[in-house]
Amino acid sequence: IEDMVDSRGRVNLPHIGSLRVEGKTTAESEALIERTYKEKDIFKRINVIIVAQQAEFFIQGEVKKVQGRFPLTADLTLLRAIATAGGTTPYAHPKNVTIIRGSEVLTFDRRRIREGRAIDPVIKPDDIIIVPKRKI
After folding, report:
1. Model's pTM, two decimal places?
2. Which of 21, 89, 115, 118 could tie 62 with a disulfide, CB 3.0–4.6 Å?
C-alpha cells in the first residue's frame, strides 16, 4: 500500500479509513498500519511505504520571479519567502504585504520588519502571500 500523509498527519487506507501517524517515525507508522490490518484480519502480510507530503506556500503580486507555489522549508519567514520569489518589483507597495491563512487575513509592514521594529512572521503550510502594487 502506498499513500501520502496529509496535512493533518493522517493516512487514508483501503478497508480501514483514516489513521493518525503524526509524530511517529516511519518505522512506528509502518508497524501501526501493519498491526491495524492484521488485527482486522484484512492482510496477513503487508509492505508499507510512507511518503511525507511536501508542504508549500503560495505567493502572488509584485515579485520578480514567477508567482505561484513554492516548497515550504522549516522556519521560513515572510521576508525570506518574498526573497525566494526574487524579491519585490519596483512597483510593489513599500510597506504592506498580506498573508491569507485559512480564513484569516493578516497584514504586515515589510519596512518595519526590515528595520527590526516588527517580528518577521513564520510562514505556515498553504499560506498565500500577496505583495500588492503601490498606489500611484
Report:
1. 0.64
2. 89
